[in-house]
């Protein structure tokens, strides 16, 4: 299998794995047969395996330069990635069921929306920031397709999940959207919000910085490219 053929197959299967289960009620039938926990565990493992294959296939694909890598361009992901990882650690398990990584079966309290007051879609924003930041220094065709695809999927998912929230919530949807935001820094200046959420935010931020440092150290051994702007 040639480099482009493998890359195209890996990309096609990765995208299909995220859309095909939603067609014809397939996901619901599989959840009914396997149980929610087992289904999402298996689906998560499959997604990680396909993602690892996709990235390795992109690295092996023929190099076609669309724009050269400039030394300053490496600063962009190095500045953006700490924020992206912090968004991800703050978003995992948040009490907002209408987003990636949110807890299902919970109802967001519009009086106390927790991190959703800053962002109701932090994982999608993290994915968009990761992919957009990596587009800047990676101007070869395979990487542009890879990071551009993730960026488009992340940005398209936000209005799609918001539309689902409007359908499900019905008459209470205006309160949900009034108390949350796609992205807002206003809660960070709200003393009442900080008293209720500051400790959790600080812990999640610290965890995000630790994970970011680990990713920075592992970047070169895993991808074969140093992320440092040297």
Describe, in plain words, how this protein is organized in 3D.
The protein is mainly α. It has 2 domains: 1-62; 66-223, no CATH class. It has helices at residues 3-19, 26-34, 36-60, 75-91, 122-135, 141-169, 173-179, 191-223. The longest helix is centred in the C-terminal third of the chain and has 33 residues, at 191-223.
In summary, what is this structure?
The chain is an all-alpha fold and 230 residues long. It folds into 2 domains: 1-62; 66-223, no CATH class. It has helices at residues 3-19, 26-34, 36-60, 75-91, 122-135, 141-169, 173-179, 191-223.
Helical amount among residues, as a percent range?
55-70%
Mean pLDDT: 89
The SS-based structural class is mainly alpha
Domain count, please report it: 2
Specify Rg, calculated over alpha carbons: 19 Å
Main sheet characteristics: none
Through-space gap between termini: 35 Å
Report the strand count: 0
- Which runs of at least 5 residues are low in confidence (pLDDT < 50)? none
SSE layout and pairings?
Elements (H helix, E strand, L loop, with lengths): L2 H17 L6 H9 L1 H25 L14 H17 L30 H14 L5 H29 L3 H7 L11 H33 L7
Question: What features would you highlight for this structure?
Answer:
8 helices, 230 residues, mainly alpha
